[in-house]
C-alpha cells in the first residue's frame, strides 16, 4: 500500500534540529534536552477538536496520519521516535483506510475501462442490417472478396479475428482518399488514384504437419540497443545492454539436465542458464515477449527460429559481435539448449507416434548444424585473436617489471621496516 510504504520507509538522516516550542493552551511543554523527544500525545488529546504540532505549534490538524506526516516531512523526525507512541497507534488505522480507498478507486476505474473496451470490441463485430437483409438470409453462402475493417495490434490481426464492414472509429471523411473504396457502379480507369490499394502483405505463418508455428522475432528494444564499448588492453567492457531478470526465463528441466547429464557445476552451469535466459529475453512470439518458462521450453520456438532464420539475425546484432565474450557463452548455451530439446522431442516422437515431433527434431538438428558452422567459427577465430593479444599484453607487463635484484632489495627493506615497527611496539608495551 502506498501510504503504508511511506510510513515504513526510513527517513533520510538529517542534522539534529534544535527547537524552542510553545505548548498549547492548558498543556505543559515536554521536557527537552539536547534532542527532540518523542511525540507526547496521549488519550487526553482530542483529535476531533484539532491537535497542534508539539514542535512548531503553527500546524493544527484533525487527523493523526496528517500530523505524523507533518512531523516526518517538515521536522525530519526519525522513525525511532514514533515507536510505541500513541500517535503511531492512532495513525495506522487512518493510513490503512486511506490506502484501501485508493485501491478501491483504482479497481473501479480499471473495471470501468475494461467494460468500455469490451463494449467497443463487441460493436466492431456487428454488421449493420440493410434493406437486403432478408435476401441475404435466403441467398446461398459463398466466399467473396471485399474490403473490411480488421482490428489489429502492432500491424497484426488480433486473435480471435474481429472485423467490421463499417468504419468502427466513426470517422466520416469529407473527400475521397486513395485508400477509400470507390462507390458502386462508378467507372474506374486503370491506374486511377481512386483505385483501392493492394492489401498489405501479412507475414505468413509456417506450418508443420498442419500445426501452425509461432512467428519468433527479435524484440524492438534489442534492435535499438547500443552495444557497449569493447574492452581494450585487458580491461572490461560494459554490461549486458538490456536489463532483465534471469529467473523469469529459466527452464527448470533444462537446468536439471545440465546437472545430471552434462555434469556442469558452478560457473559453467550459471553461464549456460544465463545464456539461455538472455536469448529468450531477446525474442518475442506473435508480438508477446517470452517471459515464462512454459513458452521458453516450447520446442516450436526453436523450430520457428530455424524456419524464419531468426538465429542468424540474433548473431548479426551489434552487441552480439564475436569481440564480446558473452557471444561465445551464449552460443555454447544455445547449442546445449538445442541438444536438450532434441532429446525431448525425440522421446515424444517415439512415444506419441505423431509425425510432427520427428519434423521438430529434424528442424532443431539443422539449427544446431547452422550454429556450428559460420557463426561458431567466427567466434572461435575472434577468441584466438583475443587470447594472442592478451598474451602479448601480459608479456609486455611482465617485461616492464624491475630486475629481480631490485625487487629483492625492496622486499628486504619492507621486511626490515616491519620488524623495526614490531620491536618498537613491543618496547612500548613493556614500558
Number of strand elements: 11
Compute the gyration radius: what is it?
36 Å
Q: Fraction of residues in helices?
A: 40-55%
Q: What is the residue-mean pLDDT, rounded to a whole number?
A: 74
Describe the structure.
By secondary structure, the protein is mainly alpha-helical. Among the domains are: 2-98, no CATH class; 209-398, no CATH class. The protein has 13 helices and 11 strands. A hairpin with a 7-residue loop joins strand 1 (51-52) and strand 2. Helix 1 (2-8) packs antiparallel against helix 3, helix 9 (299-308) crosses helix 12 (355-399) and helix 11 (325-352) runs antiparallel to helix 12 (355-399). It is flat, with a radius of gyration of 36 Å.
Output the keywords.
49% helix; 13 helices; mainly alpha; single chain; 3-stranded antiparallel beta sheet
Brief summary of the model shown:
With 431 residues, this protein is mainly α.
Helix/strand layout:
Layout: H1 2-8, E1 51-52, E2 60-61, H2 64-74, H3 86-124, H4 133-138, E3 149-150, E4 152-153, E5 156-157, E6 163-164, E7 207-208, E8 211-212, E9 216-218, H5 220-223, H6 252-260, H7 266-282, E10 283-285, E11 288-289, H8 293-296, H9 299-308, H10 310-314, H11 325-352, H12 355-399, H13 404-430
Helix pairs in contact: 1-3, 2-3, 7-11, 9-12, 11-12
Amino acid at each position: 500500500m502506498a501510504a503504508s510504504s511511506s510510513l515504513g520507509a526510513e527517513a533520510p538522516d538529517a542534522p539534529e534540529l534544535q527547537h524552542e516550542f510553545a505548548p498549547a493552551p492548558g498543556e505543559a511543554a515536554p521536557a527537552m534536552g539536547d534532542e527532540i523527544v518523542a511525540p507526547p500525545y496521549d488519550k487526553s488529546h482530542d483529535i476531533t477538536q484539532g491537535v497542534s504540532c508539539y514542535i512548531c505549534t503553527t500546524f493544527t490538524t484533525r487527523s493523526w496520519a496528517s500530523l505524523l506526516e507533518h512531523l516526518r516531512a517538515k521536522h525530519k523526525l526519525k522513525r525511532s521516535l514514533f515507536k510505541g507512541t500513541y500517535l503511531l497507534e492512532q495513525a495506522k488505522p487512518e493510513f490503512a483506510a486511506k490506502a484501501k480507498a485508493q485501491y478501491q478507486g483504482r479497481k473501479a476505474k480499471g473495471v470501468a475501462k475494461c467494460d468500455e473496451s469490451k463494449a467497443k470490441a463487441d460493436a466492431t463485430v456487428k454488421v449493420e442490417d440493410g434493406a437486403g437483409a432478408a435476401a441475404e438470409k435466403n441467398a446461398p453462402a459463398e466466399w467473396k472478396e471485399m474490403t473490411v475493417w480488421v482490428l489489429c495490434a502492432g500491424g497484426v490481426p488480433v486473435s480471435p479475428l474481429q472485423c467490421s464492414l463499417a468504419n468502427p472509429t466513426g470517422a466520416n471523411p469529407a473527400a475521397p482518399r486513395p485508400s477509400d473504396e470507390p462507390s458502386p457502379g462508378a467507372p474506374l480507369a486503370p491506374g486511377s488514384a481512386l483505385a483501392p490499394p493492394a492489401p498489405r502483405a501479412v507475414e505468413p505463418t509456417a506450418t508443420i504437419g498442419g500445426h501452425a508455428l509461432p512467428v519468433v522475432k527479435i524484440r524492438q528494444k534489442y534492435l535499438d540497443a547500443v552495444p557497449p564499448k569493447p574492452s581494450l588492453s585487458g580491461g572490461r567492457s560494459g554490461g549486458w545492454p538490456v536489463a532483465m531478470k534471469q529467473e523469469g526465463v529459466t527452464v527448470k528441466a533444462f537446468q536439471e539436465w545440465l546437472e545430471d547429464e552434462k555434469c556442469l557445476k558452478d560457473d559453467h552451469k550459471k553461464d549456460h542458464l544465463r545464456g539461455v535466459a538472455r536469448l529468450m529475453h531477446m525474442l518475442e512470439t506473435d508480438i508477446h515477449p517470452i517471459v515464462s518458462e512454459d513458452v521458453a521450453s516450447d520446442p516450436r520456438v526453436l523450430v520457428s527460429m530455424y524456419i524464419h532464420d531468426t538465429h542468424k539475425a540474433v548473431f548479426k546484432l551489434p552487441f552480439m559481435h564475436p569481440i564480446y565474450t558473452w557471444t561465445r557463452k551464449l552460443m555454447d548455451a544455445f547449442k546445449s539448449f538445442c541438444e536438450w530439446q532434441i532429446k525431448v522431442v525425440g522421446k515424444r516422437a517415439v512415444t506419441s507416434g505423431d509425425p510432427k515431433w520427428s519434423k521438430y527434431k529434424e528442424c532443431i538438428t539443422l539449427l544446431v548444424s547452422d550454429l556450428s558452422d559460420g557463426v561458431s567459427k567466427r567466434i572461435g577465430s575472434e577468441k584466438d585473436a583475443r587470447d594472442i593479444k592478451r598474451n602479448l599484453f601480459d608479456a609486455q607487463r611482465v617485461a616492464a617489471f624491475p630486475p629481480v635484484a631490485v625487487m629483492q632489495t625492496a622486499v628486504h627493506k619492507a621486511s626490515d621496516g616491519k620488524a623495526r615497527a614490531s620491536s618498537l611496539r613491543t618496547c612500548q608495551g613493556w614500558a
